[in-house]
Amino acid sequence: MTHGIRTDTHSTYLDGGRNWRDTASRYALLPLRIFLGVTFTYAGLDKLTDSAFMKSSGAGSIGETMRGVRDSSAIPALVDLALKSPVGFGYAIAFGELAVGIGTLIGLLARLAALGGALISLSLWLTVSWASDPYYFGNDLPYLMSWIPLILAGASMFSVDAALRNRRRQRAGGY
Q1: 3-class DSSP state for residue 19?
Q2: 106-123: per-residue pLDDT in tens?
Q3: What is the pLDDT of residues 131-143, one digit of tens each?
Q4: What predicted TM-score, i.e. pTM, was given to this entire model?
Q5: CA separation, residue 42 to residues 46, 56, 87 (Å)
Q6: Is the dihedral of CA 90, 91, 96, 97 positive or negative?
Q7: DSSP state for residue 70 in the 8-state scheme
Q8: 47-77: string of b/e by CB count within 10 Å (b at 16+)?
Q9: How far apart are CA 87 and CA 23, in angstroms?
Protein backbone atom coordinates (compact mmCIF):
# COMPACT_ATOMS: atom_id res chain seq x y z
CA MET A 1 0.00 0.00 0.00
CA THR A 2 1.43 3.37 -0.97
CA HIS A 3 0.67 6.68 0.64
CA GLY A 4 0.78 9.92 -1.24
CA ILE A 5 2.22 13.07 0.21
CA ARG A 6 -0.46 15.55 1.01
CA THR A 7 0.35 19.01 -0.33
CA ASP A 8 -2.75 20.94 0.73
CA THR A 9 -1.89 21.60 4.38
CA HIS A 10 -4.30 24.49 4.89
CA SER A 11 -7.99 23.79 5.06
CA THR A 12 -10.44 26.30 3.66
CA TYR A 13 -12.26 28.37 6.23
CA LEU A 14 -15.21 30.69 5.89
CA ASP A 15 -14.71 32.72 2.69
CA GLY A 16 -14.89 29.81 0.24
CA GLY A 17 -11.46 29.47 -1.34
CA ARG A 18 -9.53 31.36 1.34
CA ASN A 19 -7.63 29.49 3.98
CA TRP A 20 -8.04 30.19 7.68
CA ARG A 21 -4.86 32.29 7.83
CA ASP A 22 -6.10 34.65 5.15
CA THR A 23 -9.41 34.98 6.96
CA ALA A 24 -7.70 35.60 10.31
CA SER A 25 -5.49 38.25 8.69
CA ARG A 26 -8.52 40.09 7.36
CA TYR A 27 -10.09 40.25 10.82
CA ALA A 28 -6.87 40.75 12.83
CA LEU A 29 -7.25 44.48 13.47
CA LEU A 30 -10.95 44.36 14.31
CA PRO A 31 -10.46 43.75 18.08
CA LEU A 32 -7.94 46.61 18.26
CA ARG A 33 -10.31 48.89 16.35
CA ILE A 34 -13.21 48.03 18.67
CA PHE A 35 -11.09 48.51 21.80
CA LEU A 36 -9.68 51.88 20.73
CA GLY A 37 -13.01 53.08 19.37
CA VAL A 38 -14.93 52.22 22.54
CA THR A 39 -12.16 53.57 24.79
CA PHE A 40 -11.88 56.92 23.02
CA THR A 41 -15.65 57.33 22.72
CA TYR A 42 -16.00 56.62 26.44
CA ALA A 43 -13.12 58.99 27.30
CA GLY A 44 -14.71 61.81 25.31
CA LEU A 45 -18.16 61.27 26.83
CA ASP A 46 -16.64 60.97 30.31
CA LYS A 47 -14.93 64.34 29.95
CA LEU A 48 -18.04 66.02 28.54
CA THR A 49 -20.25 64.77 31.37
CA ASP A 50 -17.80 65.46 34.20
CA SER A 51 -18.62 68.94 35.51
CA ALA A 52 -15.42 69.05 37.58
CA PHE A 53 -13.21 68.31 34.56
CA MET A 54 -14.50 71.17 32.41
CA LYS A 55 -13.33 73.93 34.74
CA SER A 56 -10.22 76.07 34.70
CA SER A 57 -9.46 75.40 38.36
CA GLY A 58 -10.40 73.11 41.19
CA ALA A 59 -9.87 69.46 42.06
CA GLY A 60 -10.14 67.20 39.01
CA SER A 61 -10.28 70.09 36.54
CA ILE A 62 -8.42 70.23 33.24
CA GLY A 63 -6.77 73.48 34.36
CA GLU A 64 -5.47 71.95 37.59
CA THR A 65 -4.26 68.86 35.74
CA MET A 66 -2.36 70.97 33.19
CA ARG A 67 -0.80 73.17 35.88
CA GLY A 68 0.25 70.02 37.74
CA VAL A 69 2.11 68.54 34.76
CA ARG A 70 3.55 71.74 33.31
CA ASP A 71 7.02 71.49 34.87
CA SER A 72 7.42 67.76 34.25
CA SER A 73 6.21 67.64 30.65
CA ALA A 74 8.48 67.20 27.64
CA ILE A 75 6.96 70.25 25.93
CA PRO A 76 5.98 72.87 28.54
CA ALA A 77 5.06 75.28 25.73
CA LEU A 78 2.26 72.91 24.70
CA VAL A 79 0.93 72.96 28.26
CA ASP A 80 1.22 76.76 28.35
CA LEU A 81 -0.84 76.94 25.16
CA ALA A 82 -3.52 74.74 26.76
CA LEU A 83 -3.47 76.88 29.90
CA LYS A 84 -4.44 79.99 27.91
CA SER A 85 -7.92 78.48 27.71
CA PRO A 86 -8.10 75.28 29.75
CA VAL A 87 -11.84 74.84 29.31
CA GLY A 88 -11.58 75.30 25.53
CA PHE A 89 -8.70 72.83 25.47
CA GLY A 90 -10.74 70.39 27.56
CA TYR A 91 -13.63 70.60 25.09
CA ALA A 92 -11.24 70.22 22.15
CA ILE A 93 -9.75 67.05 23.67
CA ALA A 94 -13.19 65.66 24.58
CA PHE A 95 -14.73 66.30 21.15
CA GLY A 96 -11.53 65.07 19.48
CA GLU A 97 -11.67 61.81 21.44
CA LEU A 98 -15.35 61.44 20.63
CA ALA A 99 -14.78 62.01 16.89
CA VAL A 100 -11.82 59.63 16.85
CA GLY A 101 -13.73 56.97 18.79
CA ILE A 102 -16.85 57.08 16.64
CA GLY A 103 -14.86 57.28 13.40
CA THR A 104 -12.82 54.28 14.46
CA LEU A 105 -15.84 52.24 15.56
CA ILE A 106 -17.85 52.75 12.40
CA GLY A 107 -14.80 52.86 10.16
CA LEU A 108 -15.50 56.28 8.65
CA LEU A 109 -12.29 57.93 7.45
CA ALA A 110 -10.61 55.30 9.60
CA ARG A 111 -7.02 56.23 8.78
CA LEU A 112 -7.69 59.88 9.54
CA ALA A 113 -9.46 58.92 12.78
CA ALA A 114 -6.49 56.74 13.73
CA LEU A 115 -4.10 59.59 12.97
CA GLY A 116 -6.19 61.84 15.20
CA GLY A 117 -6.09 59.23 17.96
CA ALA A 118 -2.32 58.94 17.59
CA LEU A 119 -1.91 62.72 17.80
CA ILE A 120 -4.08 62.90 20.92
CA SER A 121 -2.10 60.05 22.49
CA LEU A 122 1.20 61.67 21.51
CA SER A 123 0.22 65.03 23.00
CA LEU A 124 -0.94 63.36 26.21
CA TRP A 125 2.25 61.30 26.40
CA LEU A 126 4.47 64.36 25.93
CA THR A 127 2.56 66.31 28.57
CA VAL A 128 0.56 64.34 31.12
CA SER A 129 2.38 61.00 31.30
CA TRP A 130 5.89 62.13 30.31
CA ALA A 131 7.14 62.02 33.91
CA SER A 132 6.19 58.36 34.37
CA ASP A 133 9.23 56.43 35.52
CA PRO A 134 9.95 54.02 34.00
CA TYR A 135 8.48 55.38 30.76
CA TYR A 136 6.32 52.30 30.10
CA PHE A 137 4.22 52.99 33.20
CA GLY A 138 2.61 55.89 31.35
CA ASN A 139 -0.52 54.68 29.61
CA ASP A 140 -0.45 57.09 26.66
CA LEU A 141 2.57 55.56 24.91
CA PRO A 142 0.91 52.13 24.39
CA TYR A 143 -2.16 53.91 23.00
CA LEU A 144 0.07 55.81 20.59
CA MET A 145 1.68 52.57 19.40
CA SER A 146 -1.74 50.90 19.11
CA TRP A 147 -2.94 53.52 16.65
CA ILE A 148 -0.10 52.91 14.19
CA PRO A 149 -1.45 49.64 12.67
CA LEU A 150 -4.81 51.33 12.10
CA ILE A 151 -3.12 54.32 10.44
CA LEU A 152 -1.32 51.92 8.10
CA ALA A 153 -4.16 49.48 7.39
CA GLY A 154 -7.36 51.45 7.88
CA ALA A 155 -10.63 49.62 8.51
CA SER A 156 -11.05 46.96 5.86
CA MET A 157 -13.82 45.00 7.57
CA PHE A 158 -17.24 46.09 8.85
CA SER A 159 -16.69 49.75 8.07
CA VAL A 160 -18.25 52.62 6.21
CA ASP A 161 -14.95 53.00 4.33
CA ALA A 162 -15.17 49.40 3.05
CA ALA A 163 -18.82 49.85 2.06
CA LEU A 164 -17.99 53.03 0.14
CA ARG A 165 -15.01 51.32 -1.52
CA ASN A 166 -17.20 48.39 -2.61
CA ARG A 167 -19.84 50.77 -3.92
CA ARG A 168 -17.25 52.65 -6.00
CA ARG A 169 -15.99 49.33 -7.42
CA GLN A 170 -19.49 48.26 -8.40
CA ARG A 171 -20.17 51.58 -10.12
CA ALA A 172 -16.88 51.29 -12.00
CA GLY A 173 -17.82 47.74 -13.08
CA GLY A 174 -14.92 46.17 -11.22
CA TYR A 175 -14.86 43.49 -8.59
Answers
A1: strand
A2: 999 999 999 999 999 999
A3: 888 888 888 999 9
A4: 0.83
A5: 6, 22, 19
A6: positive
A7: G
A8: bbeeeebbbbeeeebbbbbbbebbeebeeee
A9: 46
